[in-house]
Amino acid sequence: MINILLNLYNFHEKWCFETLKDILKEEYRVLVIPFSFNDDWMKNDNEWQTAYNPSTGKYYKDIVIPFLSYGIKAENINWINYFSDTKESSKYKINNSDIIFFTGGLPDQMMDRLKEFKIIEDIENYKGIVMGSSAGAMVQVAQYHITPDKDYDTFSYNEGLKMITDFDIEVHYKETSIQKESIKKVLKEKSRRVYAMKDKGGIIINGDKITILGDVTLFDI
């Protein structure tokens, strides 16, 4: 498995393209898992279609265009629809993909829905590439933290996927005092280094090899 941690849907830009073009092959099949929505944002399939439908979806192009930049065909980009897919169809889609992509949003909601669909084991044993932006990066960390922001009032530690165990990440790093306090807290309480990724920053983990993309700061114990 290769893990790719990002902040935004901007991974076709100069700061990372030259590195990722050797990883994201044009023949690859992508599976997008947009499970990080708030229940208040999306309540039914009609609202899901408004967000992700290929013709009119508000977020469809933002997510798909970066993959097209690597030569991946739109018809090879599939989705799990929370409102119409089943556990069985989701497992089938996972097994017939080369890349899993987790969208941004709320990481704890994403983990709850992955558990609900009983696909966590399938993803943790995946042999392909697992990518994600923001919340989609956070859930790849076995125990990730949430820094207080507009969506979360308090700091918390949360259970992610059993993929990355030896470091934590701070997404959308803007060097704010609250972000710095959260990083210090993780360093002190968990004795784990933290990679703080600005919006043009990312990380590739391939076995024991870590490759930094763009603007990332390492905070070590």
Automatic annotation (TrEMBL):
This is Peptidase E-like protein. The keyword NADP does not apply. One of its GO terms (molecular function) is serine-type peptidase activity. Keywords: Hydrolase, Protease, Serine protease. It comes from Paraclostridium sordellii. Belongs to the peptidase S51 family. The keyword Protease applies. It comes from the Bacteria. GO terms for biological process: proteolysis.
